[in-house]
Amino acid sequence: MMTHSTWRNRAASAILLAAAFGVVSLAVAQFPGREQPEPKHYAWSDASLSPDTRADLVIKELTLEEKISLLHGQGFGGNGGTTESNGGAGWSNAIPRVGIPAIQMADSAYGVTRGAASGRYSTALPNNLAAASAWDPQAAFEYGALIGRELRAEGYSMSLGGGVNLSREPRNGRTFEYQGEDPLLAGTLVGNFVKGVQSEHIIGDLKHYAINDQESGRNAVNANIDKRSMRETDLRAFEIALGISDVGAFMCSYNRVNGDFACENSYLLTDVLKKDFHFQGFVLSDWGGTHSTAKASHAGLDQEQPGKSFFGDALQKAVERGEVSQDEINDHVHRILRTIFATGLFDHPVTKQVPDVERGYALAQSLAEKSIVLLKNSHNALPLESAKLRSVVLIGGHADVGVITGGGSAQVDAPGGSAVPPPPAAPGANPMASFMRRQVWLPSSPLRALTAKLPSSKISYVSGDDLAAAASAAKGADVAIVFAYQGESEGTDLKTLDLGEDQDKLIETVASANSRTIVVLETGSPATMPWIDHVAAVVEAWYPGIRGAEALANILTGEVNPAGKLAITFPRSDADLPHPTLVTPPPASQPSRPAPGADISSFMATMAKGLPPFQIYYDEKLKVGYKWYDAEKKPVLFPFGFGLSYTTYAYSGLTVRGGETVNVSFTVRNTGKRAGTEIAQVYASLPEAAGEPPKRLIGWARVELVPGESKQVSIPVSGDRLTIFDEGSDGWKLVPGNYIVMAGGSSQDLPLHQQIMLP
Ligand code: BGC
Question: Ligand 1 pocket, 89 CB below 6 A?
Answer without folding.
Answer: yes
